[in-house]
Amino acid sequence: MGLPPGVSSPETLTSESLTPWQRVMHSRGLLGIAAVIAGGAALAFWMRSSGGAELMREQLGPAAALIIVPLQAVVAVSPFPSEVIALVTCTFYGFWGGALLAWSAWMLAALLQYELVRRTAQDFDFEHARRRFPKRLRDLPASHPAFLIVGRWLPYGAHVVNSLAGAYEVPVTRHLWCAAVSLVPPSLIISALANGLLAP
User: Fold this and answer.
1) Looking at the domain assignment, is residue 131 inside a domain?
2) Model confidence over 11-50: pLDDT tens digits?
3) What total of structural domains would you count in the chain?
C-alpha cells in the first residue's frame, strides 16, 4: 500500500499525518476485524447449510476438535451465534469433553477479539479520544472483575466485554482469568443441553 502524500518514509507515518480514511485503510486491527467478521459469516453459513461440523467429525474422528475449536472461536468473534457449533461439539464429545472444547473455543475468541480491538484502538489513538468522553464513559470500570465476569452473561455481553477490555487496555492476564471464570457456567449449560441433561 502506497504512502500518503507528504509522507516520505514509513518511519514518518504517524496518526497525525493520516486523514481519517487513510487511518482506516492503514489500520491492521480494523482490517483484521473485517476479515474475522467476513470469515465468521462464511463459516456460520457453511456449518448450517452443509453440516460442516458433522462432516469433519465423520472424516477426522476425535481429531476434528483441532479444527472445530478454532472455527467456533472465529464465529464467536463475529456477530453470528457460535452456540450452534458448541451444541454439535458437545454432542460429539460428551458432557465433560464437549464443555471443555466449548470453553476453549470461547476463550480463544475472548483473546482474539481483545487483541483485534486493542490494536484498532491503538491505530486510532483511542486513549487520546477517550479524554474527551463524558466522565461516566471515561471512567467506565472496564477492568473491574465484576464487569469482566458478569458482563459476559448478558446478551451480546461477550462482544462488549472483550471489546471494552481491549480498547481500555485492561491487562491481558486479568481479561483472560475473568473470561476463564465467566465461561464455565455457559459451557456447562450448553453441554448439559446437548447431552440431554437439561430440558430444552
Assistant:
1) yes
2) 444 445 555 545 555 566 566 667 767 776 776 676 666 5
3) 1
> Does residue 2 lie within any of the structural domains?
no
- The reply to whether 6 falls in a domain is no
Q: Which of 83, 113, 108 is CA-nearest to residue 193?
A: 83
Rounded distance, CA 109 to CA 114, Å? 8
Residue 110, domain extent: 19-194
CA angle 141, 143, 148 (to 5 degrees): 95
- The answer as to whether 44 is a domain residue is yes
* Residues contacting residue 151 through CB under 8 Å, at least 6 positions apart: 157, 160, 161
Q: How far apart are CA 112 and CA 117, in angstroms?
A: 9
Rounded to an integer, what distance in angstroms lies between the CA atom of residue 176 and that of residue 190? 21
All residues at 6 or more sequence positions from 172 whose CB lies less than 8 Å from its CB, including other chains:
111, 114
pTM: 0.76
